[in-house]
C-alpha cells in the first residue's frame, strides 16, 4: 500500500484564552465543509461559550474517549476513532494539552502527528505562552512558569500559522461580560494573568512570532534554500554549541540556543563533559541534572554529545574548534552564596580561552513578581 | 508589576473599558490592519459593528468600500449607514452629518483615500481626526500597502503602485490596533500552472502579512512602553529583542554590527549601537571610532553616546533603561587604563547583567 501523503497542519495562534482561536477555527471548518470537504471535530473545548458552541452546529463530532484514572473520569480525544473514520480535515483544539495517563500518547500534539501521518489535515489552536523556546520570556512577562509546552519544531512543521488577534481591551471587556469564563473565575483571571500590561506584552510576543513563522515559510519557498546552500559553501553558516552542566540555568541556555539557532538557520549541538576515567567522581545529583538537561536538549531536536575530560573548559573549546563551531552558548550561573565560584570561573575560563569564536552567556530572565506555577 | 496590581482593580478596568466603549475619551481610535483586499477585513470589522449594535451601542457606518461581497452587504443591511457624499467627481466622508448625528462609535471601512479638491481636509484620515475631535470613537480599516512609509516595500512585493496613503504616525497614534490575519490559502484542486500562480500569489501575500504583523507589533510595543511609563513600572518584558552593541575604538565593529543587524532583522527586533565617551582619545582612535559609527549608521542602527565615570556602569544602566535583551561586547574592551581601574570589563559585564544575554566577540 502506498504511504498516504502527509496531512497539512494549520495552527491558530493566540495570546490568551478568549481571543477567539476556537471560534475562528470553527468558522474555517464551516467554510471548508461548505466547499465540500469532509470535516470532523476531533476535540473541541467548549468552555461553556455560547457563540463558540453554536459554531459547531452541523459539524460532525467524533465522541471523546472516556478514561478512568485513579478513580476519576477524564475525557480525551479518541485518536483511534478519528483514524478509523479517516476524514479529510480534523479539528483539534488545544494543541499543547497533556493527556491523562492511560490515553496512549503523552501529548495531544503527538496524537496530531499520528493524524498527519495518516494523511488527515489538521486545524489546531494554541497560545504563544506554550512555545518552549519562549518559556523564559513568558515567565518574565507573566511571573508564571508554564509547564505545558510544545517544542518549537512541533510548531515549525505546520504548513501555516495564523494569528488570531484581538485587542487586550476588547479581551478584558469580554472577560467582564462573562463571555470567556464564569464571573468568579473571570475576577481571579483579571487579578492574575489578565493584567493589561501582561496581555499587551504577550500579544506583542505572538505577533512577532507569527511574523517570524510567516517569514520562515515564505523564504523557504522562494529560494532562500539556495541562498542557504551558498552561505553553507562559503562557510558562513553558523554552528552553535551549548554547554550542558548541572547548573539549573542550563535549561535557559538550551532554549536560547535553540531559538537563536532556528532564527539564524544554524546547526545546534549540546555537549556535557564528564570526568575522564572514574565516573563515580561526579556527584550523583549532578549526573542526574546533566542527564535531565541532555534529555531536554534532545526533546528540542538538539543533537547531544558527552565528552570525557577533566578540564571542562578545555574539552569544550577543543571540541568546538574541531567541529568549526562559531558560537558557544553558556549558562550564566545563578548568584548563590555557595558553589557559584566554580561555575563562575568556568564561564570566565571559557571566555578567556575561546577568543576565536563568539561566546554567548545566557542569564535567567527575571520574572515579574507574583510568580506561580501553572500547568 | 506588583505596584501595578495594587494600582488597578478589576472594577477600574471595567470602568476604563466602559469609558472607552462609550467613546467618552476624546480622540479614541482603533485601527483594523489588513494585508490584502479580500482578506476578510471588511467582514470582521462590520461584524464587530453588528455585535456592538446588538449590545445596545449607538453605532454608525461612515464609509464602506465601493463594492462589497454578499456577506458584507448582508451585514450592512442590519446597520445604520451615513453614505459618502459626492463632491465634484469624487466622494468623501460626510463629516458634518456624522458630527451632527454623534454616534458613540463610527466605522470607517477604508482609511486610505484622498478627498476630492475643495474640502477642508485633503485626506480621509484627517477627516477621521475631526470625528475624533468631536468625541466620536472611530474604528477604521486600512491595508498595509497603503501605509505611506511601507509603500515602497509593499510595491516591490505586489508590483502595484499605490497613490493614496496614510502616514504611519497616524496609525501609531491609535489607541488600539488589531490585525486581521486571515489565511493566505486557496483550497481546491489546481493544475500545475495554477499551482505555480497560486504559490507565487501566496508568497506575495505572505510577505505582506509579515509586514502587517510587524507593524502591529511595533505599535503594540509603543503602547506597552507608554503604559509602563505612565504607571512608573520599571519592569521590562523582553517581548521584543533589543540588541545593544558596545563599541570601543578597537573593537571588531564590522562583525559585531553585522551580527547585530542579522539577529535584529531575523527577530524583528531593534539594534542600538552605543559608545562610552572617554576623556582622552587619541586622534587615531577618534578616527577609528568615526569609521565604526559610520558602519553602524549604514546598518540602520540607533546610535547612542553614553557618558559616565565607569564605562561598565554606564552601559549597564543604559541597557536596563532600554530593556536590552542581548548585549554585544568585544574581547578588546580591555582598554589599558580602564582595565586597571575597574577590573576586567568583560567579566564585570557578564556578572552584572542579569536578564540579558552577553555575546562576547573575538578580537
Kindly describe this structure.
- The complex is a heterodimer of chains A (375) and B (363).
- Chain A is of the alpha/beta class.
- Chain A folds into 2 domains: 212 residues, Rossmann fold; 132 residues, HUPs (Rossmann fold, 3-Layer(aba) Sandwich), CATH 3.40.50.
- Chain A is 43% helix and 20% strand.
- A 6-stranded parallel β-sheet of chain A has the order 3-2-6-7-1-9, sandwiched between helices. A 5-stranded parallel β-sheet of chain A has the order 12-11-10-13-14, sandwiched between helices.
- The longest helix of chain A is centred in the middle third of the chain and has 26 residues.
- Chain A is globular, with a radius of gyration of 23 Å.
- Chain A starts with 8 loop residues before the first strand and ends with a strand.
- Chain B is an alpha/beta fold and 363 residues long.
- Chain B folds into 2 domains: 229 residues, 3-Layer(aba) Sandwich (Rossmann fold); 120 residues, Rossmann fold (3-Layer(aba) Sandwich), CATH 3.40.50.620.
- In chain B, the strands form 3 sheets. Chain B has a 5-stranded parallel β-sheet with strand order 2-5-6-1-7, with helices on both faces.
- In chain B, a hairpin with a 2-residue loop joins strand 3 and strand 4.
- The longest helix of chain B is centred in the middle third of the chain and has 39 residues.
- Chain B is elongated.
- Chain B starts with a helix and ends with a strand.
- At the A-B interface, helix 5, strand 9, helix 7, helix 8 and helix 9 of A face helix 1, helix 2, strand 7, helix 9 and helix 10 of B.
- Strand 14 of chain A pairs antiparallel with strand 12 of chain B, so a sheet runs across the interface.
